[in-house]
Amino acid sequence: MKPDSVFKKAFNRTLQLVEAGDVDIGATSENALRARIGVSRTTVRKVLSELDARGITQATGKRPRAGKPILKSDYFPDPETTSKRQHVEEQFMEWMLRGDTQPGTLINELQLARQFGVATNGIREFLIRFSRFGLIEKKQNSGWLFKGFTEEYALELFEIRVMFELRSAVLFSELPDDSPFWTELAELKTAHQQLLLEIGRRFHDFSRLDNRLHRLINRAAPNRFIDDFYEVITLIFHYHYQWNKKDELQRNEAAIREHLAYIDALSSGDAHEIERACLRHMTSARTTLVRSIDGAG
Amino acid sequence: MKPDSVFKKAFNRTLQLVEAGDVDIGATSENALRARIGVSRTTVRKVLSELDARGITQATGKRPRAGKPILKSDYFPDPETTSKRQHVEEQFMEWMLRGDTQPGTLINELQLARQFGVATNGIREFLIRFSRFGLIEKKQNSGWLFKGFTEEYALELFEIRVMFELRSAVLFSELPDDSPFWTELAELKTAHQQLLLEIGRRFHDFSRLDNRLHRLINRAAPNRFIDDFYEVITLIFHYHYQWNKKDELQRNEAAIREHLAYIDALSSGDAHEIERACLRHMTSARTTLVRSIDGAG
DNA sequence: GGCTTGCATATTACTTATAAAAAACAACTT
DNA sequence: AAGTTGTTTTTTATAAGTAATATGCAAGCC
């Protein structure tokens, strides 16, 4: 049976939009709402009829009208709004990164399936998807081998990352002066400066800026393989840093300064300067990752 | 139900070994045979009892002894010895590359499953595995989009390939003089020269040499992400060239000469020369691929 | 004619089931 | 004691089945 997490998420999202006054149910067509939420009309209709069933709207005659106010308890709990796939990812990452899973461990589909409460198929699909992260390896007609989230892994990851980043940075700096990317870069610079001022309170926001900057640079001359690789980096960082909070403020503050230097170098168009600034940032990011791996293991 | 293709392949392999006089069933332990064929002992025992059941061996008392001679008809037909997974790959590649499938086509799991005669699960697993080749893309809660085996694809592929190859070539050339890799390189050079002499008859053998050379170069300083990427290249070339035979002899002859120049450059240790030879080979390989895409589409 | 909703159909995201194959265990043989 | 075979248990590779979701088509409305 397929879970109804799509519906539940859509329902929650609709409640949000209504509460925020962003959407007037009575005046919005099914199709407009569909586009807004990003699901099919079938799901939107299910949401509308649920709203009705709960008395949050009243479908007297044609158009629904506001009924009962929306309560916190009307929202579906978060875990019910995410797909099994998402659950598996989260639980696997936790098992791997936090569970002190040793390099060389054999991964057992059946056991993970029981442990995570899903069918083996879901585990297998996840593992296939995950295998491109270079951390696991399939053994023919047998299980999977966990190769370990090791220093070696981090170094290999960064070797590629540096190559890609340097390539993209140079291409970015060669964009014509009237390219809209320069405007975006300027905006990002401001956002960095702003964050630096409020670093004490908002240091968590750095990872979003980090992502935006690197994605922007890669967008100047897109290459699907580089994009894919960047997804690897994003996921690794997402989970790894989520559980390694040590010195986060200082690390992020330093990284912001590196970003600012990098942004200035890009604007300058001086290839040598770009390489220097880029490498400095990459090196410190690598050091941070390697250090946190050592610390964790 | 799980197919018994592993057993059938193991059975055929055993017949081969016995026919070649490589293995004496009577004198070989189950475990030794297992190691030789690369399957579990369970499967080996199944093979042995099938041999017995057919009278190819006679298990009078303890050790089996030779019985009837082995006939061609004793072998299982090839298609029964490959896994469903392999079938799906082959059929999908054919559908995609030869079926004139247009960029933008939506891939329907159910339809492919029916077309290929497998369960949807198998299709889905294949597509997930295949998605890292950058040719298809998942649409959330919906099907997959075929992005097209286009010139743009080939160019993006080669942009990365050139970066990786240059990196590995330089690292290779810096190996110490007594590294065993130099011996391997020398052997490969001889093999190339040999093939050049017999190019008229054996030009198909080039792709194997091509693979060996590039893998050797990458092995000097391994990086799992580069290895993975090379698998993408290998698969693309494997299928694409399988169906594009135009000018194959001339293309391969030219490529062999490029390889020889590349090998010499590597041995010389002259970074500039290496870059030149490497780029020349990469450029001509790219041209070949792009041309055959245009020709096919 | 374009936009709406109602309805029917197709496809996906799962779960459960099963034979094949691998792995683990035990008993036996040199 | 190490290697062999017999037996049992576990795990994988696949198929079949099902509710949720997406998609397509038709009819109605401004």
UniProtKB/TrEMBL annotation, chains A, B:
Pfam families: FCD (PF07729), GntR (PF00392). The keyword Acyltransferase does not apply. Transmembrane segments: none annotated. GO terms for molecular function: DNA binding; DNA-binding transcription factor activity. SUPFAM superfamilies: GntR ligand-binding domain-like, Winged helix' DNA-binding domain. Residues 59-83 are annotated as: Disordered. It comes from Phyllobacterium endophyticum. Keywords: DNA-binding, Transcription, Transcription regulation. This is GntR family transcriptional regulator. SMART domains: FCD, HTH_GNTR. Residues 82-149 form the HTH gntR-type domain.
